[in-house]
Amino acid sequence: MEFRRIKHRGLRRLIEADAPEGLPPAYLDKIGKILSFLQEMEGVEELRAIAVWRAHQMTGDRRGTWSLVVSRNWRISFKIDEAEKAIVDLDFEDYH
């Protein structure tokens, strides 16, 4: 899937210019693996394939947003536009 509307500047720099500034160095490897997986992913059903990322959909006012665990506090969140086969509103956020 392609990435559209990348919210986090550090993620945008990493994706567009392979520049890691703005992201924690300790998590770059895991973030890179997650981003590669998302790009290669063909459908929503694949998200739960890697249990360690604890993929889940949020509820409440974030309904429809997926979350993947990067670390204890940090998550990569995004929505999926299935009609366009795209990841939208991609973000790296402190969850707690």
Describe, in plain words, how this protein is organized in 3D.
The protein has two helices and five strands; from the N terminus they run βααββββ. The protein is an alpha+beta fold and 96 residues long. The termini are far apart. The protein is globular. It has a single domain, classed as 2-Layer Sandwich (YaeB-like fold), CATH 3.30.2310.20. β2 and β3 form a beta hairpin. The model has no long low-confidence stretch (mean pLDDT 93). Strands 1-5-4-3-2 form a five-stranded mixed beta sheet, covered by helices on one side.
Q: Which helices and strands appear, and what pairs or packs with what?
A:
Layout: E1 2-6, H1 9-17, H2 28-40, E2 56-57, E3 66-69, E4 74-81, E5 86-94
Parallel strand pairs: 1-5
Antiparallel strand pairs: 2-3, 3-4, 4-5
